[in-house]
Amino acid sequence: MRTPAEGWLLEFDAGPVDYIEAWALQRALVAARQEARVPDVLLLLEHAPVITIGRRGRREHVLLSPDELRRRGIPVYEVERGGDVTYHGPGQLVGYPIVHLRALGEDVVRYVRLLEETVIVALAAFGIAAGRERGYPGVWVDGAKICAVGVAVKRAVTMHGLALNVATPPEAFAAINPCGLGRPVTSMAAVLGRPVALADVRRAYAAAFTQVLGIPLRATSLQALPDDVRRRAAAERVALAAAPAVAGYPAGRAPAPA
To answer: I need a surface site. Which of 83, 105, 168, 191 has the fewest CB within 10 A?
Structure first.
């Protein structure tokens, strides 16, 4: 059983966050967590439109041409998480836990199942009965995917995480074959038939995260992060922005993290 240890909750509630900004911050926090200079951290945010391709991803699952993606202002990134192709955008709650897996015996499969459980518990708070589908990662409601899950683990510390569709317009997913499954996608707003406030979902998810993973969370801010973490995040942003293009798409490939 995990001995409760306080973690940090870093919420971005001022609008969509550029993908490179959040990606660079994750990489900086992972390095600091590996060295025990910060506790576990949960980032909760909303992204500007972006497509990411995981380690097992197939570029043909990006359905729009590079020219059309440029016209729409949607970048594409190859990232170090597991899984295939995922869309992030407004109306979606993205969670990036930076968690040391020592308390879970460094069991990555167990961690992914627990991450799915955090979403199932959070959705239950809104009266949505969600679950898993055998052989298909993520969280599902009546055969449609409501949350994508894809993680990376670097020296026992996690990064990347989950994308919960709160009020994501269904047409946003026309740009991809979600996770390469050819399966329908849904959102909390579609299931409930009413608007859902992202702020309410953030609160419910943070509570579910603590309940399932046993990590009490204390709110913090970017300005309160250690200086060396913020300096490393700035350096990571430069490296990611300068990365070479991905097969002509409007973005880049990640250099390997330390």
So the answer is: 105
